[in-house]
Design brief:
The protein folds into two domains: 156 residues, 3-Layer(aba) Sandwich (Rossmann fold), CATH 3.40.50; 216 residues, 3-Layer(aba) Sandwich (Rossmann fold), CATH 3.40.50.1100. The chain has 16 helices and 14 strands. The radius of gyration is 19 Å and the shape is globular. The protein has 398 residues and is of the alpha/beta class. The strands form four sheets. It has a six-stranded mixed β-sheet with strand order 3-4-14-9-10-13, with helices on both faces. A four-stranded parallel β-sheet has the order 7-6-5-8, with helices on both faces. A two-stranded antiparallel sheet has the order 1-2.
């Protein structure tokens, strides 16, 4: 098996994916961020401060939970959750936001910029910036602002400047474009805190490293509690940060199958999906090479998912590499199955999942019934569904 722990290479490539497809002046800025990250992450002061925040501020380690009632209802394999929804701010996003905010403070940056789709990254970053006393500006598509109103309110309460994005599809891809344009106005003093394992090097590596705490905890917890590793680990995939956070620690365990679940939206046979690894082709997007959904001219296509955090036309370069290696299998789930899983998990276990996470829950429910009772599936429950509750209630006329 190829040692993927050595990835990316010194130029930020995972195989042929990743890199820095950006203007020369920005390459210098990105390399400065990379050097600062390499310097700070080795220091005991940074490691101790981040570890202290993870324990006493975030509430780590997040637990492993055996969904006994759900498993019984579905039949077959036992289903477990890594409860990232229990973190402070309600999702896995706080894991890398604290790291990025600490790095920005170390580098003397005056403002942190970011995009957000579902609002979880925005809330987590606004939280981290409030804690670090750094100005924060979040760009969010107008459609997502309407859809994810609870998170919009939280960001405003936390003191960040929220910039509505009204161009294009008014969703995540356009929010990335808008935030990056603002960043280019002063990249020396601004810090662009990318919200997933995407973008130019060093962000796919850096965000992966901060998120890898999920897999490190999960592997040790599962071994201690079950006496063996899970048969399957699974997570939803948009940009891919929660999935790579879980997968990284299991990559060398050949007995563990890994599955990433993308949004099929209204169907793979329609244009209304965001199944990048399923239907995409190789190209450049937002400063890096990856699989993406693009037209004949290489321009990003409009994408769609019921889950605002998954409607991105690209995906992290390490996921692309793992797909080509065959180490991770990527599947997709449509809106209906996602909503069904959302409601079933809520009413069997009393856990309301984020719509993003519900994609993985839906696929696990589908395959568990054909597995044996001594087999196990571990799902990264990447976020809680408070932000989605009103939208789902309206959608289902509850």
């Amino acid at each position: 098996m190829i040692d993927t722990s050595l990835m990316p290479d010194e130029n930020g490539y995972f195989g042929e994916y990743g890199g820095q497809i950006i203007p020369p002046e920005l390459i210098q800025i990105m390399n400065e961020i990379n050097d600062a990250y390499d310097e700070i992450r080795q220091t005991s002061a940074f490691q101790d401060e981040l570890a202290d925040l993870n324990e006493h501020y975030v509430g780590r380690p997040s637990p492993i939970y055996y969904a006994k009632k759900l498993s019984k209802q579905v039949g077959g394999a036992r289903i477990f959750f890594k409860r990232e929804d229990l973190n402070h701010t309600g999702a896995h996003k706080i894991n890398h936001c604290l790291g990025e905010a600490l790095l920005a403070k170390h580098m003397g940056k005056t403002k942190v910029l970011a995009e957000t789709g579902a609002g979880q990254h925005g809330v987590a970053l606004a939280t981290a910036c409030a804690l670090m006393d750094i100005e924060c500006e979040i760009h969010m598509g107008e459609i997502d602002i309407e859809k994810e109103h609870p998170n919009v309110t939280k960001m405003k309460i936390l003191g960040c400047k929220l910039v509505p994005v009204t161009r294009g599809t008014k969703t995540l891809k356009d929010a990335v474009d808008s935030a990056f344009e603002e960043y280019l106005k002063d990249p020396v003093n601004y810090f662009y805190a990318i919200g997933s394992v995407v973008g130019p090097h060093p962000f796919p590596r850096m965000v992966r490293d901060f998120q890898s705490i999920v897999g490190k905890e999960a592997r040790a917890q599962f071994l201690e509690e079950q006496g063996k590793l899970p048969d399957i680990v699974m997570a939803c995939v948009g940009g891919g940060s929660n999935a790579i956070g879980l997968f990284t620690e299991f990559l060398q365990d050949e007995s563990v199958e890994m599955i990433g679940v993308e949004p099929a939206g209204k169907g793979l046979d329609t244009p209304d999906n965001a199944a990048t690894l399923t239907l995409g082709s190789k190209g450049a997007l937002h400063g890096f090479k990856c699989y993406n959904l693009q037209d004949d001219n290489g321009e990003p296509l409009p994408v769609y998912s019921i889950a605002s955090g998954l409607d991105y036309p690209g995906v992290g370069p390490q996921h692309c590499y793992l797909k080509d290696l065959g180490r991770v299998r990527y599947e997709s789930v449509d809106d209906k199955a996602c909503l069904d899983a959302f409601m079933i998990l809520s009413r069997t276990e009393g856990i309301i999942p984020a719509l993003e996470s519900a994609h993985a829950v839906a696929y696990a429910m589908d395959i568990a019934k054909d597995m044996s009772a001594d087999q196990t599936i571990l799902i990264n429950l990447s976020g809680r569904g408070d932000k989605d509750a009103d939208f789902v209630a309206e959608r289902l006329s509850l």
